[in-house]
Amino acid sequence: MKQRVVIASVLLLIAVSTVSAQDAEDRTRRVEKVILIPLTGEDIVGELLELGPTALKLRVDNVVREIPLDSVVRIDRRGDSVKNGAIIGGAIGLAVGLSFIAEYGGEAVGFALATSGIWALLGTGVDALIPGRTAIYRRPPSQAAAAAGGLALSWSVLF
User: Fold this and answer.
1) Is residue 147 part of a domain?
2) DSSP SS3 for 27
3) Which residue from 142, 146, 137 is spatially nearest to 58, judged by alpha carbons?
4) Structure pTM?
5) What would the DSSP string read from start to end of 75-138?
6) What sign does the dihedral 138-22-124-101 (CA atoms) show?
7) Element (H, E) at 10
8) pLDDT, position 87
9) Could you tell me if residue 88 is inside a domain?
10) Cα–Cα dist 119/84, whole Å
11) Which residue has the higher pLDDT, 22 or 48?
12) Do the beta carbons of residue 49 and residue 57 sit within 8 Å?
């Protein structure tokens, strides 16, 4: 019975994939409307035409602007993945299911898997209702610290 739980847990973890660098590059090519967050001033909404190593080209109100990356904190696109909602929901469902397995033994394995799937769907639905942004470029922490005139602390979690 414990083997079923271990196998189910491993399959759930395998199903969760990370975004590769190639995926990030493909997203940059497909992006139409983006929100640019500069070091100073207001956010700029436009179409990303080119993202190079030192500058980017952005079309704002039919005018192409070349903006140095030194002046950019982050570039976002509208919308985000619902994958994190599915992961969080599935994890909650798995925790509930594992508590039933602890209480009722191996007979509850099917219930645990079904609970995990149902909660994953609920998490996906809730996440889909919340509009978000996906960062396609972030200023490296060392540059951000230099721009702020001090030290920086950086922490990130990737799924």
Assistant:
1) no
2) helix
3) 137
4) 0.49
5) EEEE---SHHHHHHHHHHHHHHHHHHHHHHGGGGHHHHHHHHHHHHHHHHHHHHHS--EEEEEE
6) negative
7) helix 2-15
8) 93
9) yes
10) 12
11) 48
12) yes
The answer to whether residue 153 scores a pLDDT higher than 80 is no
Q: What is the pLDDT of residue 18?
A: 36
By residue range, what is the domain housing residue 95?
1-18+81-132
Sign of the torsion angle spanned by Cα atoms 85, 90, 91, 95: positive
Q: How many domains does the chain have?
A: 1
> What tokens were used for 95?
């925790």
When the pLDDT of each residue in the chain is averaged and rounded to a whole number, the result is 76
CA distance linking residue 31 with residue 134, whole number of Å: 11
What are the residues whose beta carbons fall under 8 Å from the beta carbon of 84, sequence distance 6 or more? 127, 159
Rounded to a whole number of angstroms, the distance between the first and last alpha carbons of the chain is 29
Indicate whether 142 belongs to any domain.
no
Residue 3, phi then psi, degrees to nearest 5: -65, -40
User: Which are the contacts of 72, defined by CB distance < 8 A and separation ≥ 6?
Assistant: 36, 37, 38, 39, 56, 137, 139
Tokens of 56: 């980017």
Residue 59, in any domain of the structure = no
